[in-house]
Write a structure and sequence with these properties.
By secondary structure, the protein is an alpha/beta fold. It has 20 helices and 23 strands. Strands 1, 4, 5, 6, 7, 8, 9, 10 and 11 form a nine-stranded mixed sheet that branches. It has a seven-stranded parallel sheet with strand order 19-18-17-20-21-22-23, with helices on both faces. Strands 13-12-14-15-16 form a five-stranded parallel sheet. The longest helix is centred in the C-terminal third of the chain and has 19 residues.
């Protein structure tokens, strides 16, 4: 029996723009070609060959992806491919039928594209290879094809563009291993391994890989047209595996008790409850108080449970020391300031979270707050209900300088959404500076003090840590314009609420919109002010994002009880950030 293998290949980047792990719709670029191969029914094994630390780290977390050791010496591309094939041939007992070569910066590869290429090669033994091609010639073409009378003809001597001429674009190459093993290859051009009889798979339009930041919007447009979104990937529609070869007999038979403290849960999409019930040996209880639990309430409730799907309730050392059986905390959401991570680690409790799922909804709510503040929509609504017809003069985002503090998962999406409004200027600040990202979204990196002084709207997208606690107080507000507007959809405690009350009361700044508070439900004096608008920690509360968060958190629970590796374990940096008290 012979198998088909896929090799995803990438060399370490020489510039600041990491095209392999740059996020597209919230996922690294390399996610798309890797998962296309993993979900192609004709591919039996998928391997990643790279010396990029970022890409290798990403690949190591993908189930079913093999990593090929890479030599440190400088090799030509052909030598890289030869080394990859040598490794596979030595480690696979079965004969290899075809090799699919993909590049990690080609997010528009699909499982159907791979399937069609392998199928053609299987059905046409006279061909040496199948290669993707298109009309655009980005580089000097090594192979060109003309299309005539329903047949592709290689036209090597054609140097000028004419109708029905296509160029090899290297997005995907499928060839037989004999093209390498049966001959000595001296050329460093990848075309030399493709043989003489090549069949192109043609794409008529589009940008098919990412080499430069300007290509990103074009590729994202293509992904959306093919039903990818920020919360959905067409490769993730397969059913969650209930069984696992790693399960031991004890795991199969011993019932695990699961406490679900976040509410509501399972109301938007009941599939999440059916997933948990299908496991058979998970017995779950949903928060009986139907509200955010207090520390002592959770402490009393937790002792008999093995697993916890958590919301934002305080999971303190005091709580964890009473959780005698607890082995996993699966956090619904991205914020981790409510979990004492190091206490959990000391007690042998694993912690995972859902960092990507809430981001699209929080970013959109942020834009909504900008529009509310600029057009005074909540005030107008209240006036009309009181019988007052008073039209407010507002402002447009197009005339504003927007300051974005924090350009991670959510801040990046805010930058993206702002492009449709064409603000006068976008200023950004972050501990991790990504100038290529800022260039893509027409943003300029500045120090915080300059951002405070120059911005008309300031929006916060940072976690609550020892360094961001009271990040915005009177000292920072004094730097702002009197017309400035302040938005917080990140975490309560990042803005000092007493200082904000004083600033808004004295019209030191013009307004604020707050979604998160130090103590929730909020009952403080900010509600007395007409120039402060509120939402009740509902940044992630859209049907799609909320359902995705619950499903992802539940999948982590299922993986744990099945003896599988967690996919979203909290990274070490989060533990380090909590080593000092907030």
């Amino acid at each position: 029996m012979s198998i088909n293998v896929s090799i995803v290949i990438a060399k370490k980047e020489k510039t600041d723009f990491d095209r392999y792990t740059f996020p597209l719709l919230g996922r690294p670029v390399a996610y798309y070609p890797i998962h296309a191969a993993l979900h192609c029914s004709l591919i039996d094994k998928v391997f990643l060959y790279t010396d990029s630390p970022n890409l290798a780290s990403f690949g190591s977390k993908i189930k079913g992806l093999g990593l090929i050791p890479r030599e440190t010496s400088q090799l030509t591309l052909i030598e890289e491919i030869e080394k990859s094939l040598d490794f596979i041939l030595k480690n696979e007992q079965q004969k290899i039928n075809t090799i699919t070569l993909q590049f990690a910066n080609s997010p528009c590869i699909t499982n159907d594209l791979i399937f069609n290429a392998i199928s053609f090669l299987d059905d046409n033994p006279e061909y040496d290879s199948v290669v993707s091609g298109m009309r655009r010639g980005e580089f000097s073409p090594a192979r060109m094809f003309s299309y005539s009378d329903d047949e592709f003809i290689q036209d090597k001597n054609l140097l000028n563009y004419r109708e029905n001429v296509y160029f090899l674009d290297h997005r995907i190459m499928v060839f037989r291993p004999e093209q390498i093993t049966n001959k000595s290859i001296k050329s460093n051009y990848v075309e030399s391994i493709l043989g003489e009889k090549i069949h192109p798979i043609i794409q008529q339009e589009g940008v098919w890989d990412i080499d430069y930041p300007w290509q990103i919007p074009h590729v994202e447009k293509w992904l959306r047209q093919n039903q990818f979104t920020e919360t959905r990937s067409i490769y993730e529609e397969e059913k969650i595996r209930i069984g696992s070869s790693k399960k031991n007999e004890k795991t199969q038979t011993e019932e695990k008790r699961l406490l679900i403290t976040t509410v509501p849960f399972g109301e938007i999409d009941s599939k999440v409850l059916k997933m948990l019930e299908a496991v058979g040996h998970i017995k779950y209880t949903i928060n009986p108080l139907n509200r955010k639990l207090k520390e002592d309430e959770l402490r009393e409730m937790i002792p008999d449970y093995d697993l916890l799907i958590a919301g934002t309730e305080p999971i303190t050392k005091k709580v964890l020391e009473n959780a005698h059986k607890l082995k996993l905390i699966s956090r619904v959401g991205i914020g981790l300031d409510s979990v004492d991570l190091n206490a959990a680690r000391d007690l042998g409790i694993k912690v995972s979270y859902t960092p990507d799922a809430p981001s699209p909804a929080v970013a959109e709510l942020t834009i909504g707050h900008m529009l509310n503040l600029l057009r005074h929509i909540p005030s107008v609504d209240r006036n009309i209900r009181a019988g007052i017809w008073s039209r407010f003069q507002g402002q447009r985002l197009a005339n504003m300088t927007i300051g974005v503090i924090g350009t991670g998962r959510i801040g990046m999406r805010v930058l993206k959404h702002l492009q449709g409004f064409s603000p006068a200027k976008i200023l950004v600040n972050d501990l991790n500076i990504n100038k290529e990202l800022y260039k893509v979204y027409n943003a300029e990196y500045v120090e915080k003090e300059e951002l405070y002084a120059a911005s008309d709207i300031i929006t916060l997208h940072v976690p609550l840590t020892k360094t961001t606690k009271d990040l915005i107080g009177l000292e920072q507000i004094e730097l702002m314009k009197t017309s400035a507007l302040l938005i917080n959809t990140s975490r309560g405690g990042i803005i000092n609420e007493d200082d904000l009350f004083e600033a808004l009361s004295s019209n030191r700044i013009a307004g604020a919109a707050i979604d998160v508070f130090e103590s929730e439900p909020y009952a403080g004096n900010l509600v007395e002010l007409e120039n402060c608008y509120f939402t009740c920690h509902m940044g992630s509360m859209t049907t799609d994002c909320r359902a995705t968060m619950e499903i992802e958190a539940s999948k982590e629970v299922i993986r744990y009880v099945n003896g599988e590796d967690l996919l979203n374990s909290v990274p070490e940096a989060e533990y380090q950030s909590q080593l000092e008290e907030i």
